[in-house]
Write a structure and sequence with these properties.
Length: about 50
């Protein structure tokens, strides 16, 4: 999986992308917890791809 991080003030937007399919899922959370926001984005992407 690929992760793209964008900081928006106190918030962090993380996009998780599956390089094989190009599918993307985005999660937003506090900028001081990037690992948590990555886990959220990855979980959303896995559900979207049907890989729980």
């Amino acid at each position: 999986m690929l992760f793209e991080h964008r900081r928006l003030g106190a918030w962090l937007r993380v996009a998780a992308v599956d390089p094989r399919t190009g599918e993307e899922a985005v999660a937003t959370g506090p900028a001081d917890a990037p690992a948590m926001v990555e886990r959220l984005a990855l979980g959303k992407l896995r559900r979207r791809l049907g890989r729980v």
